[in-house]
Amino acid sequence: MSIHSLWYKRRFHIGTPKNMEKYERILNAAIKVFAEQGFHQSTVSQIAGEAGVADGTIYLYFKNKDDILVQFYEFKTSQVFQRFRKEVDKVDTAVEKLRRLIYTHLYEFQNDRHMAIVFQAETHQKKRLAGEQIRKISKLYRDIISELVELGQEDGTMRRDLYLGLVKRFINGAIDEVINSWIHTDGSYDLVSMADPLADLIIRGIGNHGVASPVKVRHLPKEQKGNPVIT
Amino acid sequence: MSIHSLWYKRRFHIGTPKNMEKYERILNAAIKVFAEQGFHQSTVSQIAGEAGVADGTIYLYFKNKDDILVQFYEFKTSQVFQRFRKEVDKVDTAVEKLRRLIYTHLYEFQNDRHMAIVFQAETHQKKRLAGEQIRKISKLYRDIISELVELGQEDGTMRRDLYLGLVKRFINGAIDEVINSWIHTDGSYDLVSMADPLADLIIRGIGNHGVASPVKVRHLPKEQKGNPVIT
Amino acid sequence: MSIHSLWYKRRFHIGTPKNMEKYERILNAAIKVFAEQGFHQSTVSQIAGEAGVADGTIYLYFKNKDDILVQFYEFKTSQVFQRFRKEVDKVDTAVEKLRRLIYTHLYEFQNDRHMAIVFQAETHQKKRLAGEQIRKISKLYRDIISELVELGQEDGTMRRDLYLGLVKRFINGAIDEVINSWIHTDGSYDLVSMADPLADLIIRGIGNHGVASPVKVRHLPKEQKGNPVIT
Amino acid sequence: MSIHSLWYKRRFHIGTPKNMEKYERILNAAIKVFAEQGFHQSTVSQIAGEAGVADGTIYLYFKNKDDILVQFYEFKTSQVFQRFRKEVDKVDTAVEKLRRLIYTHLYEFQNDRHMAIVFQAETHQKKRLAGEQIRKISKLYRDIISELVELGQEDGTMRRDLYLGLVKRFINGAIDEVINSWIHTDGSYDLVSMADPLADLIIRGIGNHGVASPVKVRHLPKEQKGNPVIT
DNA sequence: GATGAATGAGAATTCATTCAT
DNA sequence: AATGAATGAATTCTCATTCAT
C-alpha cells in the first residue's frame, strides 16, 4: 500500500512522534549541510550521511531535494517568524515593539546559526526554490513593521512623513545586514548585543539633530536626478 | 607556449582590443544568464549561446565557470564601486557624501540590472566562489562609509556616540534591501527616486525627535539580554 | 523453521484456504497492474496497494517480483490452457475441434482481459522471465493443434501436404493477432464473434478455390529465393 | 551555442555524414542490446559500451533512452516497411503481391535479426513507448494488405465474403507468429523458406476443399455463443 | 503471519571541461 | 584563435527487498 513516501503526512501533521523525530533529524542535517556548503553544492548523500540515514530515506520524508528547502521555510523558518509576532505583541509602544523585534530577530538567528545562514543565503536568490514560502514569511515580517510604524506615528514617537514601503525595507535591510556581517565573521561576537544600538540607529538615525548644525535635508539639484553628474 | 588560454592576460589587462571585446561580450552574456537563472542553474553552453561563441571559447578567456563570477567582481563590479569612490570624493560635507553614495549606488544598480541581480544574489552566499574579490569590494565600500561618518563626526553633523562597525552595516544594509526589493518587484519603479528619502532615513532615523516625546533610549532590562524573556 | 515465505507451498498447492485467498488476491492485483502498466513499469508497491496488503506481504507469497509473473503462467494461464484441452476433447471431428479451440481461446481471453493483455505482452519478449512456464504452455497449445490437424488429415478434412510445424504457427499466429488487435482497440467489440469467421479463414484460406480461376500455386522463380530481386 | 545535443538534427536529416555514421552506430548498438536483453533490462551504459562511445554521447544523438526506441521505429523499421510497399508494387496480381509481401517480410526480418527481435517484442506491448511510430507502421502494413485483398476480390482470385478487418489480422498474425517462432529457436532454420508454404496456407487454408467432404461451415449452436458450454 | 520503514544498489541524465581539427 | 563533439564524473532519484516490531 505504501507508496514508500511519508512526506505528505508531514505536510498535514499526521506523523507519529517516531517519524517526526527522523523528519526533524533529516531537516536539521540538511540545514547544517546547506549552511556549510550552500544548497547547490550540497548533495543528498551528504545530508543523509549527516542525518545518519540511507540516501533513499530522505525521499520518504521529502519529495525531492528542493522540497527540503521548501519545508525549511514552511516548517522551521516560519515557526521562528511567528515567534517574532508573539514577542512584538507583548509590548505596547511602537518603540518598544521595534526594539523587541530586533532583539528577538538577532536572538533567534544567533541561536540557530545554520538557519540564519541558509535563510540569508537562499532568501536573496532571485530565482528561489521556495518562493511561495519566502513570500509568506516576508509578508509576515513586513506586516509587523508596518503596524509598528503606524502605531508610532499615532502616538507621536515616529515621523509622520514616512513612506511606509521604504521604511519597511530600511528597517529590514539594516537588521539583515547586521546578521549577514555576523555570519561572515563566523559569529565571533555577540550578535544580540547589537540589538539596542541598532534600534537606536533606526530610530534616531545617524544625524546629530538639533545639537550643532541641524541636518539640512539638502536634496541633490534636480538636474542630477536623471543622470548622475560624473564631473 | 601553446597558449590555449588567455584568462591570465585579462587579469592583468594585457589583452588586445579585439579580444577585449570578446572578453566583455562573454562576461556580459554570463551576467545576463546568471541574472536570469542564478549561477548554478546556468550552464556554460547557455553563456556561450548568449555571447554567440562556441562553448570552448569561454575557456580561452576564463579559467572555468567559477572564474567568470570571480572576474565579474574583479572586472565589472569593482569598476562600479570605484565610481562610488570618485563620486563621493567630489563633494565635501559628510552628509553630501552620503547622499551621493546612495544616489550613485542606486543609479548604477538601476542602470545595470543584471549586475545588480547577480551582485545581490551571489554576494549573500556564505560559501562564495569569489570570496576574495567580494571582500575587497566590501572593504572599499565600507571604507567609504567609514571616512564619511568620521568626517561627519568631526564637522558635527553626525553623532559621536556611534559604533562605526555597526553604522557601516546599518547603512549598507538599508541600501541593499531597497535594491533587493526593487529587484524582486522586477524593477517596476524608479529606484533612484528612493535615494533621497533613504538618505533622509539614515540621517534622521524614523524617530520624531524633539517634537513630541523625545525618544527615551530605553534599553531592555539586563536579564533579558542573555535570554529573551518570553513573558 | 521460521518460515517467512510461503511461495514454495503455493507451488505445490499446500496452502490453507485462507492463505490461498490472499495469494489469489495478490496475483490478480498483480495481473491488473501489469496489464495497465506493463511488467517493468509496475512496482511491487502498486501491486500491494491494489491487493490491499503491505509491501512485505507480497514476499510471503512470492519469491520476488519476477516470480509473480512466473506464477501467473504456472497458476493462472495454465489453468486456462488446460481448459482449452478439455473443450477440444469434447468434440470429435478435427474441424469441430479447431472451431472449439478458437472459440474457447477468444472466449477466455475476452472474459479475462487483464490476463489477455499480460499474456500477449510478456509472451512476446525474447528474454522472458517465465521462459520455462511459457514453453510448457506453448507446447500444450501446439500439441492440441498437432493432434487436431493430424486427425483432420486422417479423416480427410484437412490437407495432407501440410508442414505441421508451420501450420501450428499459422493457426496460433492468426488467433493471436486477432486478440492483439482487440486489446489495442481497448476491447471495444465482441471478440468471440470473430471465432467463426476466423476458423473459416484458417480452414478455407482466403483464396477463391475452384470457383473462378483456381489458385495457381505459383512459386517465385528460384533465383529470387536467396535474395529478393529489387528490380 | 551548442546545447550539446544533436538529436534534433537527425530528426530533420541535417546531419553531416560523420555524425550520421555515429548516429547509426549507436542506433545499431542499441538495437543489438535491446534484442539481447529487452528494452527495460538494457542500460544506456551497455549501449554506449556496445557502440564504443561514452555514456554521455548517447544524449547528443537521442533525447533520452525512450527516444532510441522511437527512432528505431521512425528511422530503421519504417525504412524496411517502405521496402515492403515497393516490392508489392512490382507485381500485378493479388496473389503475387501477397507472396511477395510475405517473402520480403521474412527476408528482411531474417537479414536483420536484431531488428526482428526488438520489433516483435516491443510492438506487442500495450503501453508502448513508441506508440505513434508503431501505429504509423502498422497502418502502412495493413493498407498494403487491404489493397491486395481488394484487388484479389476484383480479379476473382480471392473470396468476396471476407471481413477485411479480420483478414488483415489473420494474415498479419500468421506471418508474425512464423517470425516469432523463428526468433525463439534462435534462427536456426531458414525463415525465408517458409514464405511459400505460408502464403499457400493463407490463400488455400488448411481445409481439403472439394476433395473428400467439403468443409461444412458448421457454426456452433447459438446457445454456446454467449457462454461456452463447459459440459 | 503481517507490516511498512528503511535500505542501498543501480540507472538515467547533466554538464563542465578537454582537445582534435 | 576558435570550434563543438566527445567525455565521464557526479548527482538525483527509484524501487525491489529486508527485517525489526
Notes on the structure:
Four copies of one chain form a homotetramer. Chain A is elongated. The first copy, chain A, contains eleven helices and no strands. Residues 210-231 of chain A have low confidence and may be disordered. By secondary structure, chain A is an all-alpha fold. In chain A, 43% of the residues are buried. Chains A and B meet through helix 2, helix 6, helix 7, helix 9 and helix 10 of A and helix 2, helix 5, helix 6, helix 7 and helix 9 of B.
Keywords:
homotetramer; mainly alpha; Arc Repressor Mutant, subunit A; Tetracycline Repressor, domain 2; 67% helix; elongated; DNA-binding
Distance between the termini of chain A: 74 Å
Number of helices of chain A: 11
Oligomer: homotetramer
Largest sheet of chain A: none
Q: CATH homologous superfamily of the largest domain in chain A - what is it?
A: Tetracycline Repressor, domain 2
- What is the overall pLDDT average of chain A? 85
